[in-house]
Design a protein that fits this description.
The complex is a heterodimer of chains A (328) and B (514). Chain A is an alpha/beta fold. Chain A contains 14 helices and 11 strands. Chain A folds into 2 domains: 185 residues, Rossmann fold (3-Layer(aba) Sandwich); 106 residues, Helicase, Ruva Protein, domain 3 (Orthogonal Bundle), CATH 1.10.8. Helix content of chain A is 47%, strand content 16%. With 514 residues, chain B is mainly alpha-helical. Among the domains of chain B are: 152 residues, no CATH class; 102 residues; 98 residues, no CATH class. Chain B contains 17 helices and 4 strands. In chain B, β1 and β2 form a beta hairpin. The radius of gyration of chain B is 42 Å and the shape is rod-shaped. Classes of the chains: A alpha/beta (328), B mainly alpha (514). At the A-B interface, α1, α9 and α12 of A face α4 and α5 of B.
Amino acid sequence: MITEKDIYGFHDLVGKISKEIAKDMVGQTDVIEGVLIAMISGGNILLEGVPGLGKTRLVRTIGRVFDLPFSRIQFTPDLMPADVVGTNIVVKDEMGNSVFKFQPGPIFSNIVLADEINRATPKTQSALLEAMQEHTVTVGGVSRKLDEPFFVLATQNPIEQEGTYPLPEAQMDRFMFKLLVKFPSPDELTNIVRMTQKKNDETADKVATGEDILKLREVARGVPVADPVMDYAMRLITRTHPDLDEGAPSSKKYLRFGASPRGAQALISGAKVRALMNGRYNVSFEDIEVLSYSVLRHRIALNFEAMTEGLTSDMVIERIISETGRGV
Amino acid sequence: MTNKKQINNALKPYFKRLTKESFLKALIIGMIAGAVVGLVILALSHVLPIKIFFWHALVGFLISSAAAIIIAYNLLKPNVHKVAARVDGLGLNEKVQTMLELQDEEGTFARVQREDAINTLTTLPPRLLKLGFPKRLAAVCVALMVAFSLIGFLPNEHRQELLEKEKQLLEELEKVEDLLEKLEEEIEEADLSPELKEEVMEIVEELKEKLKSEKSTSKKLSAINEAKEKFEELLKKAKELELEDISDSLKENDNTKELGEAIEEGDTEKVKEELDEILEDIKDLEENELSEKLQELAESFENASENASNDLKESMKELANKLKEAAEKGEIDMSELEDMFDELGEKLEEAMTGEGTEIDNIDQLLEDLKKVQSESENPGENQDGSKGKSEGQNEGEGEGEGEGQDQDGGEGKGGEGNGSGAGKGEGKETKEDVSIYDPSLIGGDGKDEYVPGKKDENGNVQKIELGEAELKEGTVPYDEVFQDYLNKARQAIERESVPDDIRSLIEKYFSSLE
């Protein structure tokens, strides 16, 4: 049961969390906001950025702020699925008999950082699928539920493409957001350097728990969405499809395929959280438009024409937004 | 206070502002529509010969503007959802629209959201909602209004013409009274039975009443038509009765029995044949039979004349007197008798075909009345609606054979001839009521016509047969025909409103024929 206190408390708590994260993270406010929205919504995140921009540090800080255990998996081509989900090993019991015992992999954590996920083979990448979607892991015919909240934060390097295995569309669709980690500004860079020169540079404290996240998630689900806003969000998703009559002209020109219904769910869930984070109790057009980049950029596929014209997914999304119109 | 009321109160100031905006837009749209209608009306007044004044266009402008304003306002007037969307546009992030959707809900979120939206609304000054002024529409409106005013005050040739025609028309209409008076006089003077006269007068009285009471020209015209129809019906009946009586009277005598039967059958050819036969019989009579036979014929025609009217009566009486005179003298001038028989034949034909009666004058007056009235409906136009200068070209070929008898009893046969011709004509505008004698109208499918010619070198009278017309038996002297036409033309131009130049043209034409 949601109370007024829960609703009014949401903004305060998220404010505290953001403030605490900001202690250890300089800049990257959009990324932090995106990560928090996804965490509260119960989604996973794909971070794209060159190494050294603080992705691991962000995960570690979040873990500390929420007092949640986190694990980091460095994906490499020789990484096996069992290295991720765990395996049954033979051990001696008290009676001296050999028995199989499940040795949990690093996936058994609340926050998982899948670093450079595109370096692992598709087989290993797919080991994450069940965990990301169902929050369960099946090994040796036995399904094990992961602790809630469960949150996967994967990273990939956009520069080095040699020896990588691009994520299949099905797996990409399981990431709620794809966030782009940009290079910090000179001021931010200065602050980063200063901060890391201190003896104990990580000072963020625990301000929330895993239960708090679950509570925030429950509260966010209740945020109302007005019909025009809902209609706008759905039109936006529909218009990414080049093969549909409703498809936007830019979609028809530059896209191979559009976003899935999971994208629509992600858009509305994220918008609800964003509204509350901004002290509102309803979803606005702005929430939809701001989040549509994070939600759609990995769910649409550019065609050859878009690539030859040097367009990015974000550019096409921007065009689709302007072509769709709010309809008010 | 209910949620709905609370929300409506919060939105009221914005609602008022948007109502003003919608009304302003509707007003401009309405004026544009009105100006377009006004311009169309004015444009028509410049293009078509319709009596349209500026005030007509102004009325059109006002009515269509009012209608368009009402329609546009009903389409544009704000509803609560429109207001909510506009207010949200002030940076309220769809708070108001969401609040409206949740107005009937009492959940925690709905309550919190509503309170938040209403608090935001109450702190927001309504003036922030700027009234949208449709600049483009206003520019179009101003341009159209200026055009409307300018075109409205441009000189209009059609309108000027119409005004002049209207003036002429009023003058024409004044003639109606004169014509009606003439009509009554004609009826009084006509040699009609008192019963028939009374019935005709009733028709005329009824017509007078209708012409006074009816305001529209078309109704006046239909009243005249109605009177004319009644009059013709009456005339037809009267003629039928008259001929029936004549026929009965003639049938009583053996000598004129067959003539009576021919009249009864309505066969004009047979009537002529019978008259010729009577004439032949008279020619063949022996001297001892002559007196008695002529006496019998005279009595028969005299008795028949009692039932006849007008010229026919005169003709029959004259013939009867002539026959009596001949019977008494015991000798007969066949030439004179032939002429009288011919005349009687013509009069009988006229009576049977309904021509040349006293009533024709009345009929003609009714026609004149109708023309004056139709002038008031279509002033300044010909019957076919055309006006102005006309030009025509025609070509024709003809072939004819002539046969005839001259005044002195000589007979002759004209040579065969054929010819072709081409002509080009140019004519000025003429009114439909102007009757000009035109030889080309003779012949065709209608009434049989012929024109007797002048004597040729050999003393033969030439005749010209035209079209499919059949030649009548015998000939009529040129002077007689000419005089007859001349008289009719003079009567016509005296009675009808014939322009002076046309009148002189007709006179000139007839002078050339003399």
